[in-house]
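Interim report, section 4.2 (structural modelling).
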Amino acid sequence: MSLSDAPTLLPPAFEAWFAARGWTVRPHQLAMIAAAKRGEDALLIAPTGGGKTLGGFLPSLIELAGLAAATPKNRPHRLHTLYISPLKALSVDVARNLTAPVTEMGLDLRIETRTGDTSPSKRQRQRASPPDILLTTPEQLALFCASPNACTFFADLRHIVIDEIHALAPQKRGDLLCLALAAISRWAPGAQRVGLSATIKDEAELARWLAAQRPGESERQAVIIRGAPGARPQVEILDPKERIPWAGHSTRHAMGDVYQRIKAARLALVFVNTRSQAEFTFQELWRLNEDKLAIALHHGSLAPEQRRKVEAAMAAGKLDAVVCTSTLDLGIDWGDVDLVIQMGAPKGSSRLIQRLGRSNHQLDTPSRALLAPSNRFEHLECEAAREAVATNALDGEPLQTGALDVLAQHIMGRACGEPFAADALYDEIRTATPYSGIARDTFDRVLDFAATGGYALNSYERFRRMVKTREGLWAARTPQIAQRHRLNVGTIVEAPMLEVVVSSRGRGGQRLGQVEEYFIEQLAPGDTFLFAGQVLRFEAIEEMTARVTRSTDTTPKIPSYNGGKFPLSTYLAARVREIVQDPALWASLPDQVRDWLRIQRLRSELPKADGLLVETFPRAAHFYLVCYPFEGRLAHQTLGMLLTRRLERLRMRPMGFVANEYALAVWGLRDMSGLDLDALFAQDMLGDDLEAWLAESDLMKRTFRNCAIIAGLIERRFPGQEKSGRQITFSTDLIYNVLREHESDHILLRAAWIDAGTGLLDIHRLGEALTRIQGHITHQALDRISPLAVPVMLEIGRESVRGEGQESILIDAADDLIAEATRLD
Amino acid sequence: MTNRPQLHDFQIQGMAARADVAGVLVLPDLATLIVSDLHFEKGSAYAARGQLIPPYDTRSTLRRLAECIARHQPQRVIALGDSFHDLGADGRMDAVDAGELQALVAAVEDWVWIEGNHDPAPPLRFGGTILHELALGALTLRHLPFEGLAPGEIAGHLHPCAKVRGKGRAVRARCFATDGTRLVMPAFGAFTGGLNVCDAAFGRCFGATPDALIMGQNAVYPVRAAKLIPDRAQSRPKSTEAR
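Predicted structure of the assembly:
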């Protein structure tokens, strides 16, 4: 595609508009127009600032301009283009950006958004008279599918634009979206799909995901169109003046340096990985803020009005820095950011590149980033990430096959909309790439689940939610059932949250945002904690509200969990292993970190990239075994659980374990240095032991709860309902136990097991790691702790050991009762 | 943990009692086993209202009850009310489960159904005697606990649960609630939830938060009221106010 094609592809009005702005149309934008003309689905990959959004919409705008010119002024508006993004705010932002070309070219078009916040009257109007372009979210699309007349509503649809497609596709939301697209493609067979993204690891995989498949034929994929790459970002790793900590995630030591950089920048975005890190960083920066810089805080738990205020101030250029979490990752651009600071390790190169994209939207000047690692291991990880950015090496886990709980929700949704025939729906869902390989038997079981619960004890015939009409079509049994289903649409299952309200003298109050119920549960009245940038004193819980007062304390009494929320990506982990094993790659590391690795080499050895280093040593009254798989905390915790079971059988009397992102430490009462390590780490530990442990674990129950909610087995909690989140958790645990006892192969248990493999337990990854290290385990029997072991050992006692039983807490509580010989004995 | 008893022996108003970790109470001197709040067919009651939760709760509850009866070999079994989740439970029960229940009742010398608020008229077809309440020596057995002094009362209805904090986390489990003079039974049904013993409802019966015999995995853990915490960190009702 060359620019000489422009005249044939770009109508004069558009050409004039580009010229008036002093722009020239970009080659990838023309390629998008050409692909649309050929009727092809297209995946556009272009860096931020590369005119990606406009590229996605140009084919629509050109067609719509033609339609508007050819038909009378009051032509009936019909839905022509659908835009789907993962964030409500992104829809609003894009609507605003589209308005400029549309009004400047004098196009008579209606562009509207529809999100969870859209008023019922506006929704109704949109239904009766659809806009030309509708900007919405996957959940809203699922709601359309679950409504009558969806077929007519979508009949004239020509284009579907999916923004930030890399963020949606790997999630259950992506499954839900893909199923909705399959339905829409049946109602509007001519509709073309466009995917937009700046960071994609496996382009072909996403191009397949985007295209509609044809069962029985070879796999189809969207045509891939690439924008010119922007200037490579400049990434610097902070070499702080202070001592770099061995462990922990506070990054306190780097705050002074970070503050100086903020001061020197026009507008800095300070990214952190968790909400509590955001709170901590914000507080520390203000402690140093002698220059009264305007530093704001932005994270997902803050009240929407608070966030809107920060966004508006950013856009107006009134801020110097914003401390934020992944809420500002995606492509909303509120201000003229010239520096991105990442506190703590970025955990994945794609995430870092995405965050870098938030700074400096001119393609030809490089964006600037500063990485501030919070401990020594994170220095290695940041180094790996910097190299990844330099070579634009993206990471990301491969897409999974479609989740069965999401399919159950979609099937029920379809029955709430236009009645369907099972055979036709089976064919339709197989056009959605995540479900293209689903067996008919599995589909039928999910359908039966949606209808009757799918139990072998077939006793719910008369309570079924779906019935088959005389014509053989499936439909919701009653309108009430359909209405209840619509209230439960979506795949995002939030942890139960409480509103945080500040009051003075127990009256009135200002809403600050929401906090997880489990966090508040651990507090006693009077405890102080950090939230919304303030130290708050917890007073009491009333209904769904946590009542707090402002505290004069400068340090909160209750520190919150500071661990990295994102797992270390497989890609970065592999690079970190390579850096560690090869001193030639240490040149750019700070002296402190280099010395640490040098002493490790003297005292023990360096872990090999393709192997596993195991160290054993005595310390105080215990014997320790520390290993370094570098596979992320979740996989290590699962490994710890399985190893302790095995060690117990070997009569090593293990006492506990602790894991961080890089290492695992197990301790016990016997010396483990004489064990056959190949046998200890043999892959068969993922068999019966895993199953036995997993079935009882809290994580499995939580996974099951999410599946049960998404699949519609139990209903979500709504504001004003009496049922607290805790009671829902409680009852899904009971359901889980009873179902496992009586029908262990139930489809929902199967769905939960599949989720567990990739979700909270990272079993897949552990399995791959165990394969990798087979026959490559090296053992160092030491007389004392090694330098590399220090960080994980420092975690002991900081974190409650997962899986360690509830029973031990009860034993402690009961024991001292017995000691006191109370009236009960 | 291995040495801990699955049974916890104590006294209620001077009468020997034994709390079984499975959630039943045995009075050894009277060869009597007490179980409360079975809530048969709670699952199907939800299904009738559109939530198709598994229909196996009756089966699960029956199996555990049969195990308890086999373990203790009582001459008398007393089901302390709310044995059936609602008046329609009987009609929804699977034939296999109904047969099991009939056989279980028939195998015990004396089976008593105490009326509960969920089952004011327990079905007749399973056998056994239906009573509103029952006096056994110094003990009175009824479903609804009396709000006020009631020494010797054994009741159900409240589904007591207790919560204990330790090691930075909290554990919540079903329990027997007692102050040594009277007792509230844990709910036995597979789908029954629980009410924290720190709730005011227990205060109205016991005059304060009662002690808890907490049902762990393999053992009963007696825990004093002072160590129990309410759900969701609410401030505990002041003891002066309750007494």
